[in-house]
Amino acid sequence: MSSLRIAGGRIIDPANGVDDRVGDLWIEDGRIVAAPADPDARADRTIDARGYVVMPGGVDVHSHIAGSKVNAARIMRPEERRGEDRVMRRWRGFRSGTIGSVPSSFTTGYQYAGLGYTTAVDAAIPPLGARHAHAEFGDVPLVDKAMLVLMGNNHAILDALREDDPARVQRTVAWLLDSAKGFGVKAVNPGGVEQWKQGGGRIAGWDDRVDHFDVSPRQIVVALAKAVDALGLPHPLHLHGLNLGLPGNWTHALEGMKALDGHRVHLAHVQFHSYGGTPEDPGGIDAQVGPLADYVNTHAGITVDVGQVMFGDTTSMTADGPTGHYLANLLGRKWYNHDVEQEDGCGVSPIEYQDKNFIHGLQWAIGLEWFLRVEDPWRVAMSTDHPNGASFRSYPDVIALLMDKNLRDESLARLPEKVRTRSALGDLSREYSLAEIAIVTRAGPARILGLLHKGHLGPGADGDVTIYAPDDDRRRMFALPRWVIKGGEVVVDDGELRSAPIGSTLFTELEVDAATRSEMGRKLAAEASFHPSSFGLGLDDMAEPRAVSRPTPG
Amino acid sequence: MPNGLISRKSIHDDAASGSSTSYTCTHCGCLCDDLELVLSEGRVVEARSACETARPRLVGLSTTPAASPSPRVQGREVGREQAVTEAARILAGSRAALVMGFRRSTNETVRTGVALADRIGATIEVGDEAASWPRLAAMQRVGSVGATLGEVKNRADVVVFWCADPMTTNPRHGERYSADVEGRFVPEGRSGRRVVVVDERPTATAGGADVFLKVRPEAELNVLLVLRALVREVPVDAHRVEEATGCSLADLQGLAELLQGARYGAWFSGGLAGRGPIAEAESRHQTVTGLIRELNRKTRFVAVGLGEAGNSHGAESVLAWQSGFAPGVDFGVGFPESLPGESTAAGRLARGEFDAAILVGGPAYDALPEGSRARLATRPWIFLGDRDHEAFELATIALPSATAGIDEAGTFTRVDGVSLPVRALRPASSPTEGEWIDALMEAVGLSGRDAGAPGSEAGR
């Protein structure tokens, strides 16, 4: 038994209705516990947190931190990991590493923890890539990890849909998730990646048909959302819709939300889906957050993460192969592409977001509009779609912008004039409170993910706690937490790593019967380049596996 | 379908005599995981689905453990603990150690190997570095455009073998992944595909091709450049093209048209992207990617390596995720640095710029040029590998290790990035390479090297 008392801090725990209340927090054996009845009870260690702000550890609902495309980005971009300020030195028992926009594995964990984040979800792992991604998770310390498994272009799913067999769709979802030891279900450009791999015309609308399979993106996402709900998965269908990044795509985003009416859905990096104008006239692009946010505000089943763009050099990476191809050609930069059999695609390219560039400036403004226009902070999560919009390391900068209208105005004033006319950001006066920041960076994402033991400080929650020194400079406050505690252990103390437990891998436990396994195995065998017995993963292929209980549906 | 737990199990765990069981072969880059080994009376008696290259290496293998060999320190047999202590002393005292090899090591072993290199500030190089450096240097310039092999199987209606002869080197490539196999969008198999072989002379693979184009090795790069220009529709001069390539412009135009006419094309080449000068390997890789990218403006096309024996690609991947670089990293200054052609372990070994070395696996020693072997003999060095390998007798300290796919299970990664479980045939009689490295890590402790400049702020 080890115990920790965090004494006298200003506790901000929105999930439990606690907003800036001075009190003690007790952690025993890695979990938050009620304060002991005995007023003289002593903990093994006490942190004097008087004057400090105490929040749950951060939770990232959408990030790209492991697996083959992340690793390809590392290999392809040595230029952004050379030089003293882009590395972490070997220190004591901790590992050295490189940073850039896609940090190496240990560094990823250290950097997340350094910001007070203790949970991160990789949002796009193909089932066939799960073995690699889980191995990498084993080298990402300090954060609990989980993966969303790509299914929107999966042949087994598309076949079941073509044959109009929803029960088989559901069995397939369960089997894929179990085989990959994944946490949730992701769809990326549903049907559109398959269509591109076939060399067919682009899928541009929800009712376009995917050749050969004769299904539409609408059918795919509705079937997946139904299956996710029927299986009672903790996290709703996680959707990257159609036409990412293209002018005029806001109408498709709206139509996608309407198509899923009545289902739970999480829209990923919604900033990239909120553009006005038309593909024929890209110069006519403008912000169309208003109507989309209005729809979210009036429909309870929808949540979003933003995919905020910040200025600087980063790397775009997506399972949306055709978009990766488009972007690489648009930018004229080097291009990594990797088609994954039966499942999905992958595109990686360097990108620099420049504040002199009108489109980039507009993207920045659109992201901020999303944070400010979604009325209920529980339904909008902090993300840069790391590393797509920017590295997760820029979260403190985003927080500072959300909390300070003046800072936004100063930044906006430096951007091209057209950004101010094509976006209403300048008119939005809302400023986030500390409690609202706590919601969008931890309490909300945990709730969106369905992680009952994360994002709050009530008894039973994981002992993941971040303690900040209050500071009018919000960027500095959130960039350098005073202490970070993971599972009851102090892991960062005044900017220094103290220990680096590996953290758990969260997954959804599903029962898949033997008949389904053999049915799916047979289908897989016909098409795969590997033996079906090589496909499914077991618990000993994972780092510290931890099954997440499924909440009762409804 | 068995669950994933098989990945850690050995075949012997569930194989009664006379039974058959599935096995992943590591003898070429195909990494076929559909072999069935039939075991009887403590031996492998048949390897179903194995090619003629692999079968003789599998049939006859014992499925019972051999006697446990002892480690050696300067030729003397010693206990394991003493060997680790002596090896750790060498490593802890080194200022410029080399860590090399991992050509046939599991990904799990490489994870520990990189940790050790980081701890002692060594220069590490993994896998088949001579082929990896030019390929990765090209990727760093222009990227790469690839796919998993199942995409080729199911979609490719045009398959190109560029200066390679898989019928000889990767015998089951065609039946499993490329030329002959039936796929979802190529239900006819071989007759649904156009197969092109470009090579210096007719080979076994060329014998079965629809199109064969003869190209001299020294003209390979020029041929690639011209093909790219043709796909790009850049006007070219017929005479100059023939001069530079030794091929007629009409032949090259025909090939360019065939490539552009693919619905989904697949381009295969060996590790050096041809048989031409090694100094041009990087340029060849780069130009292949340029050509494939150009083709993707008009259709779908991918380039995939044929793959090499063992687990070079897995080793590379692990080093990259832990450090950010592949296939070689210098940890000497306390953080990872990597510069193709500059900071390579093989180069330092050849020049004698090291004070200790660890070689992991016999194949690493086999690949060393004479001069490097001579350099090695002048410094203390540690060998992890098979007792029967010649390096075992030569090393300062030799640590007998299990062999992946024989008496060690784990994960290998195919040339297309797909990670597959590799199973053991028999219980291990020696520790695995990873277990030795873990023991070395522990013995080296933190005293080894602490580059610990203060101010390594976690969040900055």
Plain-language structure description:
The complex is a heterodimer of chains A (554) and B (460). Chain A is α/β, with parallel strands linked by helices and 554 residues long. Chain A has a single domain (55-497), classed as TIM Barrel, CATH 3.20.20. Helices cover 32% and strands 21% of the residues of chain A. Chain A has 17 helices and 24 strands. In chain A, the strands form 5 sheets. In chain A, strands 1, 2, 3, 4, 5, 19, 20, 21 and 22 form a 9-stranded mixed β-sheet that branches. In chain A, strands 6-9-10-11-12-13-14-18 form an 8-stranded parallel β-sheet, with helices on both faces. In chain A, helix 4 (155-162) packs antiparallel against helix 5. With 460 residues, chain B is an alpha/beta fold. Helices cover 36% and strands 19% of the residues of chain B. Chain B has 19 helices and 19 strands. Chain B has helices at residues 11-14, 55-58, 80-93, 107-120, 129-142, 149-155, 166-169, 173-176, 204-207, 220-231, 238-245, 249-260, 281-295, 312-323, 345-351, 362-366, 370-376, 390-394, 433-444; strands spanning 20-23, 35-40, 43-48, 72-73, 76-77, 97-101, 123-126, 143-147, 158-162, 194-199, 211-214, 264-269, 300-305, 328-330, 356-360, 381-385, 397-400, 410-413, 419-422. In chain B, the strands form 4 sheets. In chain B, strands 5-4-17-16-15-6-7-14 form an 8-stranded mixed β-sheet, sandwiched between helices. Chain B has a 5-stranded parallel β-sheet with strand order 11-10-9-12-13, with helices on both faces. Chain B is globular, with a radius of gyration of 24 Å. The relative contact order of chain B is 0.19. The model of chain B is unreliable at 1-9 and 448-460 (pLDDT under 50). Chains A and B meet through helix 1, strand 7, strand 8, helix 2 and helix 3 of A and helix 4, helix 5, strand 8, helix 6 and helix 14 of B.
